[in-house]
Specification:
Distance between the termini: 58 Å
Order of helices and strands: HHHHHHH
Strand content: under 5%
Low-confidence stretches: none
């Protein structure tokens, strides 16, 4: 039976940077697809409770940091082989995260984007459950992300219906 040894501080720092790059890549894909998202968002018929466009950038910035740190905590605690399932689902939710903005803003496919964000929501729930087995703080770091995606899903559905 092999035992896992936590990475040294320099290796852990490189690992954290790697998770930061992965989260930043998801954000970048969304950012490129949403170059004119603020104008598009403003032109949509929205529910009265829709937040202003300027709020999304700061919220997502904080969330991407917590997403990266959560993934890193699990990797640091269990390693790739010890948390293979958890980190695979984590990677899947990052891919789904990156795909939503091109679907919603880039292609204007509000219905397809809604189905996709529901899949994202389910994948985040699975990630939280799997992360909790390795690191409770990592799982807890993803709760605000789940809450925001819950809100964003509701907003996506409302915009789809209204438009």
């Amino acid at each position: 039976m092999s035992t896992y040894t936590r990475p040294s501080l320099p290796v852990a720092a490189v690992g954290l940077a790697g998770f930061g790059v992965a989260a930043a890549a998801a954000a970048l894909v969304g950012g490129l697809a949403a170059a004119s998202a603020s104008d598009q968002y403003g032109a949509l018929v929205q529910p009265a409770w829709a937040p202003p466009a300027w709020l999304f950038g700061p919220v997502w910035t904080v969330l991407y940091v917590t997403i990266a740190v959560a993934g890193w905590l699990v990797w640091r605690t269990a390693g790739w082989s010890g948390a293979r399932s958890a980190l695979s689902v984590f990677a899947a939710q990052l891919v789904l995260n990156a795909l939503w903005t091109p679907l919603f803003f880039g292609a204007g496919l509000f219905g397809v984007a809604f189905v996709e964000i529901v899949l994202l929501w389910l994948t985040i729930v699975a990630t939280i459950v799997l992360f909790a087995r390795h690191s409770r703080p990592a799982a807890l770091l993803l709760v605000p992300y789940l809450a925001w995606v819950t809100f964003a899903s509701t907003l996506n559905l409302a915009i789809w219906v209204l438009n």
